Amino acid sequence: MSTALETEEHQALRAAVAALGKRYGRDYMTTVIREGSHTGELWAEAAKLGYLGVNLPEEYGGGGGGMAELSIVLEELGAAGSPLLMMIVSPAICGTVIARFGTDEQKQKWLPGLADGSLTMAFGITEPDAGSNSHRITTTARRDGTGPDADWLLTGRKVFVSGVDIADATLIVGRTEDARSGNLKPCLFIVPREAPGFGRNQIDMELHAPEKQFELVLDDVRLPADALVGDEDAGLLQLFAGLNPERIMTAAFGIGMGRFALSKAVEYARTRQVWKAPIGSHQAIAHPLATAHIDLELSRLMMQKAARLYDAGDDVGAGEAANMAKYAAGEACVKAVDQAVHTLGGNGLTREYGLASLITASRVARIAPVSREMILNYVSHQTLGLPKSY
Question: 178: pLDDT confidence band, cut at 50, 70 and 90?
Fold first, then answer.
C-alpha cells in the first residue's frame, strides 16, 4: 500500500512494526487461539519497543505521539496477521481518557504501566438492554455519604467486554444523578479486577480470538472517591474523547485484517495455474481484488484524516471522520476477506491458508463498537441535517 503521504517518521514506524509483525504472523495467532492462551509475548515485545504507548505523553513513559502513530502500529500488526485487539481498548480508549482528563494521581498510577504494557485496562460501556443507545445505560453510581471524599457504590451490568480476565482494571461507563436537575449523566470509573462485587462471566463466542468476551455484574462495588475519572460534570465530553480513538483504532484493525487477506489472495492468484496462465490474469479474479485494494486505500485515507483531526484537538471534526473511517474500513475488510476466500476456492476454507476464521472475525469491524446502521444514523443526522427517526 502507498505510504508516500506519510512523514519519514511514520514510514519508519510502519516498517519497524511490519518487521515485528512478520516475526510473529498468523501462525502465532492461530496457535495462541488453538491453545486458549494469550498474546503475551507479542504484547510484551511491542511494549518494550515503545509501540503500545506511542500515543501516550512522554512524561509518563509514552512516545508523545497520537492516534496517527498508534493506528499505524495496529494496522501493520493486523496486516501481518497478528493484530492486538486490546490496543483498541487499553492505550487508545483508557490511556487517552486518563491522559486527557485524569487526576495527577491517576496519571501517575496508570499511564506508565499502560505505556510499557505492564498494566492493561478493559473498557465497559455496552449493556444487555441498551445496545448502541448510550442514553439507556442503567449502570449507576451513588455516593455512600456526603462530601467529596465519600465512596462510590456502582451497580449494573455490562456485556461484550474484551479482555477482562487479563486486565488489571476496567474503565466502566456509569451514570450519576445530577443534584440540580435529578437527571442521570454519564461518568467514568476505574474498577480494579478483584474489587468485591465485581463479577464476570465469559461469553461463549463463535468468534475465535485470543481476547475473550465477558458479561460483567457489578453488585454495589465500593470504589474510593478517586475512582472517578475527571470532572463529574464533563461526562459526555470525556466519553467521546475515548470513543473517537476507539473508532479510529477499529478502522486500523479492519484495514490491517483486510490487507492480510488481500495479500494472501494476490500471492495465490499470481502462482495458482489451472489452465495456461495464473488465475490472476483473468479479470474475474483480478478486478475484484483490485476493487478490494481501492476500498482499503480509501478507508485508510479517512482513518488518517480522523487521526489527524483528533490529534489536533478537533473533537467534533474527528467524530465525523472517525465514524466514517470505521464504517468504510468495516465494509472494506469484509469484502476483502470474502474475495480472498473466493479467490482461493476450497483452499480458502482450509487451516493451511488461515483465511476461513477471518470470515467471522471480519464482521467485528462492521458490528463493534457501533453498528454500521448507527453510523449511518450519525452521518444522516449530524452531517446531512436530516431529522431523527428515534
Answer: low
Complete DSSP assignment for 312-324: TT-HHHHHHHHHH
- CA-to-CA distance for 355 and 257, rounded, in angstroms? 10
Q: Would the pTM of this model clear 0.70, i.e. be above it?
A: yes
Q: In degrees rounded to 5, what are phi and psi of residue 2? A: -70, 135
Instruction: For residue 309, give the DSSP letter.
Output: H
Tell me how far apart the alpha carbons of residues 114 and 99 are, in angstroms, rounded to a whole number: 11
DSSP secondary structure string for all residues of 46-114: HHHTT-TTTTS-GGGTS-S--HHHHHHHHHHHHHTT---THHIIIIIIIIHHHHHH--HHHHHHHHHHH
Inform me whether the pLDDT recorded for 295 exceeds 90.
yes
Contacts of 262 (CB under 8 A, 6+ apart): 289, 292, 293, 296, 336, 339, 340
In whole angstroms, give the CA distance from residue 166 to residue 89.
12
213-223 and 169-177 as β-strands: parallel, antiparallel, unpaired?
A: unpaired
Cell of 243: 470513543
According to DSSP, the residues that pair with 189 across neighbouring strands are: 172, 228
DSSP for 175-219 reads EEE-TTT--EEEEEEEEETT-TTEEEEE---SS--SS-EEEEEEE
- Asked if residue 160 has pLDDT above 80, the reply is yes
* Cα distances (angstroms) measured from residue 184 to each of 102, 127, 139, 285, 325: 21, 16, 10, 54, 31
**Cβ within 8 Å of residue 318, ≥6 positions away:** 244, 248, 306, 307, 309, 310
Instruction: Provide the phi-psi class of 313: left if phi over 0, else alpha when psi is between -120 and 50, else beta.
Output: left
Alpha-carbon span 53 to 90, nearest angstrom: 9
Q: Which of the four pLDDT bands, split at 50, 70 and 90, describes residue 133?
A: confident
User: 67-79 vs 235-271: helix axis angle to the nearest 10?
Assistant: 30
Burial class (CB in 10 A: 0-12, 13-18, 19+), 71: buried
Which amino acid belongs to residue 89? V
Cross-strand pairs, 185: 176
What is the 8-class DSSP label of residue 14? H
| Distance separating alpha carbons of residues 108 and 93, to the nearest angstrom | 17
